[in-house]
Specification:
about 180 residues, alpha+beta, Protein Transport Mog1p, Chain A, eight-stranded antiparallel sheet, 4 helices, 8 strands, DUF3515 domain-containing protein, membrane, DUF3515, transmembrane helix, transmembrane
């Protein structure tokens, strides 16, 4: 008799548990995207067109070894930085580069800036810069390299981050000075 009661209880438990398990499985399948339910995938944003026109940059005459250093540095720059495509420049493509619109420009072999003893310099990803505000934006010029490099960023939002984007290439291509200004860490 006890065996019959146990069997009856087991049948009842199975008859109740099986539909609940099936229902839970179907619900999970539906929530995870089966049957066309669940969250719909979002379309990726359309890429914005970027200009490929030439960017006007002033020509400079460089002496050796700056010419060789700059040629090697510019050759190492990537084709895209922070989603901005590299654009052709009007003068000195072996010493200048430009990205995006409005253009962020990179100039190798610029005059070394005068660094006052109390000037605030920024070590960004291993390279030391002196920022100079202009009406068009900020010029970040290296102060710890044998051949100075300037990164000109239009406007004022995120300009330090833009300079830092080029720091690895500068550090790998342009030798540092034996003695950097104080504050360069």
């Amino acid at each position: 008799m006890a065996d019959e009661v146990s069997r009856s209880a087991a049948k009842t438990a199975t008859l109740v548990a099986l539909p609940i398990t099936l229902l839970a499985g179907v619900l999970a399948f539906w929530l995870l995207g089966g049957f066309g339910g669940g969250a719909k995938p979002k379309a990726s944003p359309s890429p914005t067109p970027q200009p490929s026109t030439t960017v006007a940059v002033p020509p400079r005459t460089l002496a050796e070894p700056a010419t060789t250093v700059c040629r090697g540095f510019i050759a190492q720059l990537p084709g895209t930085v922070r989603g901005k495509i590299r654009r052709p420049v009007s003068a000195g493509p072996e010493q200048n580069a430009a990205y995006g619109q409005p253009p962020v420009t990179v100039a190798c072999g610029v005059p070394a800036p005068k660094v006052a003893p109390t000037a605030t310099v920024y070590a960004l990803s291993g390279v030391c810069y002196l920022p100079t505000k202009t009406s068009a934006g900020t010029v970040w010029t290296t102060v710890d390299r044998q051949v100075p490099v300037a990164v000109t960023v239009p406007g004022d939002s995120g300009s330090g981050q833009w300079a830092a984007e080029f720091s690895d290439t500068i550090a790998n291509s342009v030798k540092s000075l034996a003695k950097a200004p104080s504050g360069c860490g």
